[in-house]
Amino acid sequence: MTDEVELNGADYRAVHRLSDRENTTLAEVGEPCDRVPAESLAPLLASGHIELATPADQESD
Amino acid sequence: MPPIGASQFGAFLVDGYSLLSAKVKEFSHEVEVELEPSEGLGDSWRATLPTGMRNATIIQNGAFFDTTAAGIHAAMSAAPATTRLVAWAPAGNSIGALFVACQGTLTAKYGVLSEGAKLTKANAAYQVTGALDEGVIVQAHGAVTADGDNASVDYTLDPTQTVIPITSNTLANPSVVTTPVPHGRTTGDIILISGVITSNPTINGSRTVTVISPTSFSVPVNVTTAGTGGSFVLANTRLGGVGYQFASAFSGLTGYIGKIRMSPDDTTYADAVTFVNVTAAPDAQRITVAGTIDRYLRYNKDVTGSGSVTPFAGFKRT
Fold this sequence. Notes:
A: two-stranded antiparallel sheet, 26% helix, B: Jelly Rolls, 3 domains, 14-stranded antiparallel sheet, 5-stranded antiparallel sheet, 53% strand
């Protein structure tokens, strides 16, 4: 339940535009999150800013 | 919060008109709870009950009468019955300081006062038709000439937050936290725990809450040695919020876009509010946003062209 598993950004899609502190875009809405720092994925998921990609999403990449 | 002096009154904008330059002498905002008589036959004393309605009034007195293009007379005299956006910064014009604003504000009274041997004054009273919004400044009122990002505003450092003490946390997976007073949280809230001792591993840090009872909740940590003490504050809110942006001056540029971004970790940000492109001043905007508002807020400035704009922006969590 509490084991921490490192998430893979390519498995997730941005729900909102994501950017770094300097406002450089990391992912537009619907894009994969492979440029998002790995340590940010879990908090972004908890906040609803990213979601797990569907198989259809991944096939379209 | 230490006492605040008049010199700290940092900004006062009405629909983008900056009225501090008119040297307002007094400013007050009052919130009134409406009451209804509740006594009846057999009662010998007056009694009242709150109706559940509140109303707010803003009063400013003693400003110098000023007819310059962006002065107080231009702001007040043209259409006193028009609804307005009003914002002020009673505790300083700095990022993270208190921001108060309201929408739907009607200028209920505007008067020009001339007295012998004195400068002419302009007084105004506003009736607020909606709620007062109290939040934080994300862009201090001042000139902007280039793109950039402001410092992050950390909600866990907000002085209006309630700090809830922790009695203990159990040896368990997940660990159960007990509080001596009702914690007021709901499942899914993210809190920042600090000051817990002996817990191994520590539960200090940012944690997601699963509520068990009004005075207990669990956090997803596999604790092998129980802990005691500490406290927590809320690290996000989940009922949306409202962003305000004003521009009191604009010259040379062809456009200006302000944006409020949010982040749970101060590393990766998501867009929260993007204001409409500003092409002239005065300008005032209010945009609501639903859902989760993360711990950190950050204001981004995007200018087009060469020149200057003087924005002021704040955000209120619902």
